[in-house]
Design a protein that fits this description.
The protein is of the alpha+beta class and 351 residues long. The chain contains twelve helices and 15 strands. It folds into three domains: 82 residues, Rossmann fold, CATH 3.40.50; 61 residues, Dna Ligase, domain 1; 183 residues, D-amino Acid Aminotransferase, Chain A, domain 1. The strands form three sheets. Strands 7, 8, 9, 10, 11, 12, 13, 14 and 15 form a nine-stranded antiparallel beta sheet that branches. Strands 3-6-4-5 form a four-stranded antiparallel beta sheet, sandwiched between helices. It has a two-stranded parallel ribbon with strand order 1-2.
Length: 351
């Protein structure tokens, strides 16, 4: 999707991916290789104006390798380092005065027992590194769950997080240029299924200027602290009286995919503008939107396109349970018009 946005700006791309069947090959030259292979990294970056990434699992050492060879990498290395370690991520939020869950770092069974006694249950035990879409996590609902949680995850650095009594899950996606200029898309509401994003509503129902301002203070503050260049996202919990930071995603984000059709400038176009030093585009929404992920397999194309305001994105990926193989964005002039379209789309996708 970055490549598709860039073609319209007259850009060309090389992509590095371990799979020779990576969908990015449709829009640029594909270098097949491991993300930590120095030769592959050198090949993909040769002659490039800038190197960027769209997954926080990219090894920070790979970015360091390219920087050492005088390549510009944006967003920078620190964003990778922080987002790849949940303890460092929470520490950054807390250093900026941003509310988070109560957390404890866990390196032993004794420390886990102490955290359960101090923080209580329910809570979530997570690996500090790795894990995505609900992986690398174990929910503890009672002290009796400790044995199973430790058996599942013990042996690597962990973090223990209290449950946040949230009303809904939100996210703020923001673009930041090298000169510190920022542009934020409207706050969105996210609904997950089995730990995987299922539906995003943009703007979040009940959106207010106060909610937007509160979310922007968090999102812009985090990006500024990282001297971030590009598009990033902070996932949030909304409680009865606050916004609580959950995770940082230093990249274009699934909850921002709606912006391709639903905003004046998409997150993909603005990411490219930012890392190339071009002016940022307007992030204002065009009416209201909903984005629904296609998980596992693609729905019937004709059934989707028969719904007014539907825009289908097929990633060209092989079907696999739980895999994001595409998404559909619905656009409408207001929430009343969007509701029946979303109901019809969910009936098609969820079958």
């Amino acid at each position: 999707m970055l490549g598709l946005a860039g073609i319209a700006q007259g850009l060309s791309f090389r992509f590095l991916d371990p799979s020779p069947e990576a969908p990015a090959a449709a829009v640029g030259t594909l270098v097949t290789g491991a993300l930590d292979d120095p030769a592959a990294l050198d090949e993909v970056a040769q002659g490039a104006a800038v190197v960027t990434y769209e997954w926080e699992g990219v090894p920070a050492d790979s970015a360091s390798h390219l920087v050492a060879k005088a390549h510009t990498v944006a967003p920078g290395i620190r964003a990778l380092e922080v987002s790849q370690d949940r303890a460092a991520e929470k520490a950054l939020f807390q250093s900026l005065g941003i509310p988070t869950a109560t957390v404890a770092n866990i390196d032993s069974r004794a420390e886990l027992d102490a955290a359960v006694a101090a923080i209580g249950v329910p809570a979530v035990l997570k690996t500090r590194r790795g894990g995505y879409d609900g992986k690398g996590q174990h929910v503890l609902r009672a002290p009796a769950d400790v044995d199973a949680a430790w058996a599942a995850l013990g042996g690597v650095p962990l973090i223990y997080e209290s449950f946040v009594a949230f009303r809904r899950e939100l996210s703020i996606v923001a673009a930041r240029a090298a000169d510190g200029t920022t542009a934020c898309w409207p706050v969105v509401e996210n609904a997950h299924r089995d730990g995987i994003l299922h539906v995003t509503r943009a703007p979040a129902p009940g959106w207010t200027p106060a909610l937007q301002a509160a979310a922007e203070r968090i999102g812009v503050g985090v990006l500024a602290a990282l001297d971030f260049v590009g598009v990033g996202c902070v996932e949030l919990f909304q409680t009865d009286d606050a916004l609580v930071a959950n995770e940082l995603a230093p990249r274009v984000h699934n909850s921002g995919h709606w912006s391709i059709e639903g905003a004046q400038t998409s997150q993909f176009e603005n990411h490219l503008r930012a890392i190339l030093g071009r002016p940022l585009g307007s992030t204002a929404s065009r009416g209201v939107s909903a984005m629904v992920n296609c998980l596992g397999s693609m729905p019937d194309t004709d059934a989707v396109l028969a719904i007014e305001g539907a825009h289908l994105h097929d990633y060209g990926k092989a079907s696999r349970p739980g895999r994001k193989v595409g998404h559909v964005t619905l656009t409408a002039e207001n929430d009343a018009a969007l509701a029946p379209r979303l109901a019809a789309l969910l009936a098609v996708i969820d079958g």
